[in-house]
Amino acid sequence: MKRILLALAGGLMIGVIAASHARLPAAPPKSDAEKAVEADKAAAAKAKDAEQNGKAQDRAVANYKKNRGIAMDTKPAAPVTPAKAAKKK
After folding, report:
1. How do residues 12-57 score in pLDDT, each as one tens digit?
2. How far apart are the first and last CA of the chain?
């Protein structure tokens, strides 16, 4: 029984190694029409990304202008002592 299992395991290993070294066939060359369609899609995607980037920048600038007058609290918070923690409960 062990010999059969070892033979099966060895065969599987050989099959896995052989499959990992196999090559896929080369893709067929693209026609000019397919290349043009792909270029149009890429250009449209690039334009959309640029538009979204511009909108995001505009939102960031508006947020900065809206909140720039608010000063951040730079002093550290008071440490919580065990007595203060007990009073909060």
Report:
1. 999 888 888 878 888 899 999 999 999 999 999 999 999 999 999 9
2. 70
CA dist 60 and 42 (Å) reads 27
Q: How far is CA 52 from CA 15, 41, 56, in A?
A: 49, 16, 6
DSSP letters of 42-53? HHHHHHHHHHHH
Per-residue pLDDT tens over the stretch 56-73? 999 999 898 888 866 555
φ/ψ (deg, to 5) at 22: -70, 150
E strands in the chain: none
Buried/exposed 46-82: b ≥16 CB within 10 Å, e otherwise: eeeeeeeeeeeeeeeeeeeeeeeeeeeeeeeeeeeee
CA distance 43 to 67: 36
Residue type, 41: K
